[in-house]
Specification:
This protein is an all-alpha fold. It has one domain. The protein has 7 helices and no strands.
Length: about 150
């Protein structure tokens, strides 16, 4: 009597396919790039506003106030680059980046609610704190994702 051998054919995992992995990597690079572009626009938008005469008149800004507002963002941005890099190394990119993205988006939205130079400076400092993660997170992810 002949015996029939059955073989189980496993269905290949789509995420293990080289093309799927390559596509996923490019999606990640694309998302990080979009985040960097949004951060750049957010980082530089105050410069355009400070050159706009109605904005300057509305807040009654002196040249010192304009300099303060231009630099307020970079105080927290600069001070938090290394700590956010540590957070990304410790906890990965997803959660810290998502939290920071929410912080900087809310702070950017709150900019429209400000009524004084102090409030505007505070919102810019918070925005800088939120955006401080962009460069460390992007570099962390690019370093670990081969693009070939």
């Amino acid at each position: 009597m002949a015996t029939v051998q059955s073989t189980v054919v496993e269905k290949p995992n789509v995420s293990d396919h080289p093309d799927a992995l390559g596509a996923r990597r490019w999606v990640i690079v694309g998302l990080l790039s979009i985040g960097a572009i949004i951060a750049f626009c957010s980082r530089t938008n105050i410069s355009a506003a400070l050159a706009y005469k109605p904005f300057v008149e509305h807040f009654q800004l002196s040249n010192i106030d304009r300099g303060l507002l231009n630099s307020a963002f970079f105080w927290s941005y600069m001070l938090l680059q290394i700590p956010t890099g540590w957070l990304v190394d410790r906890y990965g990119v997803k959660i810290p980046y998502a939290i920071s993205f929410v912080v900087w988006c809310l702070a950017s939205a709150a900019t429209g609610l400000t009524r004084s130079v102090g409030e505007l400076a505070t919102v810019r400092v918070i925005t800088g704190a939120g955006e401080a993660i962009v460069t460390p997170a992007s570099r962390h992810r690019y370093r670990r994702v081969p693009l070939y």
